[in-house]
Write a structure and sequence with these properties.
Blueprint: E1 2-5, E2 8-11, H1 28-94, E3 98-102, E4 108-111, H2 113-118, H3 128-135, E5 136-141, E6 144-147, E7 152-159, E8 165-171, H4 173-216, H5 223-252, E9 259-262, H6 263-273, H7 275-280, E10 284-288, E11 296-299, H8 301-319, E12 324-331, E13 337-343, H9 371-381, E14 385-389, E15 396-402, H10 408-418
Parallel strand pairs: 10-12
Antiparallel strand pairs: 1-2, 3-4, 3-8, 5-6, 6-7, 7-8, 9-11, 12-13, 13-15, 14-15
């Protein structure tokens, strides 16, 4: 006999037909409980799967919304980039500067119309080095190119990560011509001012010399008057000669041949030339070479001696009789040579201090105004520096700093062998 229990078909057979198998015990209640337990587990799993599927559907819906939002944002961003690219394209087309993009293989990738006008052979895929050799005639400095057609351009380039580099080329021809014109005009203006100053400076002693020469031409002069007029005439001519000499030295600046020289030799020459004036004014001069004895610099001995003479002469002119002049040398912290010229005269007027190195500026009635200007020009041409210092104890103080030669000992030994 068969029955359907909870969806599972069971059958019962007559016991009499199986009497030879012994006693068979059947437990239908226990099997039913196991089936009900299995069915409950299955239902629980089904519910979990249903819940998980619902959560999955919610997650899919959320991801779909996020994807739509991301897609919308990407579309907006793409539209903005396209708009920006259009604007950059228009900007590059309108830029007066030439823009050239060169890839990592040195091939021209992109360029604007200004670049086409500046480089006629410019074409996509060509090697930039070949184009440059065809157009550039000279490169006197990095970024400064002289083209074969006479134009001058300024070039700057920047790397583009791993995509090559970008070159910005600006035509500077008109600006350079304008700058050269301005510089030429400034030089002409300075020359005109200098010529006017020189004419003014020369006119006074020249007029006095002409006057005294006219007096000497008279026949009724006594010997004493003739000597006085002759001395005045000679003084005026010497003043004119000094003015012309200083003017030539200033205009020449540092146009001299440079060679290793000893600074103490230049000082000796300068002091020897001023001995008559030192004795006339009963002035004293003290020289202390210190550590700088036999110190070598690259320059011109006569030019330096002239500059040193002007500094000493400046101290004598302003200090007058019995003035004391001290000259000392030492090695500065930066291993350069330091020369100090000091005197115990009246010093420098603080009002005039900013202008004492200007050409034709003087506080003396018969001064040329070129002495200190010549000193500054010579020092600068020797690669040094000149400054006026107001000492605490009065007087005037000038400091000259000159670069020393590194191979001083080698040059000294070579010079001894040659001698």
């Amino acid at each position: 006999r068969c029955a359907d229990v909870t969806g599972v078909q069971t059958c019962a057979l007559p016991i009499s037909g199986f009497s030879h198998m012994g006693n068979l015990q059947i437990k239908p209640a226990q099997d039913t409980q196991e089936l009900e337990h299995a069915f409950g587990v299955f239902n629980e799993l089904s519910e979990r799967l249903t819940t998980a599927y619902g959560q999955l559907e919610g997650r899919v819906a959320g991801l779909t919304r996020e994807l739509e939002r991301s897609r919308s944002e990407r579309l907006v961003e793409t539209a903005q980039k396209e708009h920006l690219a259009d604007q950059l394209g228009v900007l590059l087309e309108a830029l007066p500067a030439a823009i050239v993009l060169v890839d990592v293989r040195d091939r021209v990738d992109r360029f604007n119309p200004a670049a086409e006008q500046l480089f006629p052979g410019l074409a996509w895929g060509r090697r930039w080095s070949e184009i440059k050799s065809e157009v550039v005639a000279a490169e006197p400095a990095p970024g400064d190119w002289h083209l074969h057609d006479g134009r001058r351009v300024s070039v700057s380039q920047r790397p583009l990560n791993d995509r090559g580099r970008i070159l910005v080329v600006v035509d500077m021809t008109d600006q350079r011509l304008m700058q050269e014109r301005i510089e030429r005009q400034d030089r002409l203006s300075a020359m005109g001012e200098m010529a006017a100053q020189l004419a003014h400076q020369v006119r006074t002693p020249l007029s006095a010399s002409v006057l005294y020469a006219g007096q000497l031409a008279k026949g009724n002069l006594s010997d004493q008057q003739r000597q006085q007029f002759g001395a005045k005439l000679l003084e005026g001519l010497r003043h004119t000669e000094t003015l012309v000499r200083d003017m030539l030295a200033f205009s020449r600046g540092g146009s001299f041949s440079s060679s290793p020289i000893r600074v103490d030799d230049a000082l000796t020459v300068a002091i020897a030339s001023l001995q008559p004036r030192l004795r006339q004014l009963k002035a004293s001069l003290h020289l202390d070479l210190g550590e700088a004895d036999n110190c070598l610099i690259a320059g011109n001995r006569d030019a330096l001696a002239g500059a040193f003479s002007n500094l000493i002469d400046n101290a004598l002119n302003h200090g007058g009789e019995h003035v004391n002049v001290n000259i000392s040398t030492s090695i500065a912290d930066d291993d350069s040579l330091l020369l100090v010229f000091e005197d115990d005269g009246p010093g420098i007027d603080p009002v005039a201090l900013p202008r004492i190195f200007d050409p034709f500026f003087t506080t003396r009635e018969r001064g040329t105004g070129l002495g200190l200007a010549v000193v500054q020009a010579v020092v600068l041409e020797h690669g040094g520096a000149l400054r006026a210092v107001d000492p605490a104890r009065g007087g005037a103080r000038f400091e000259i700093q000159l670069p020393r030669l590194e191979n001083s000992r080698q040059y000294q030994s070579t010079s001894r062998k040659q001698v």
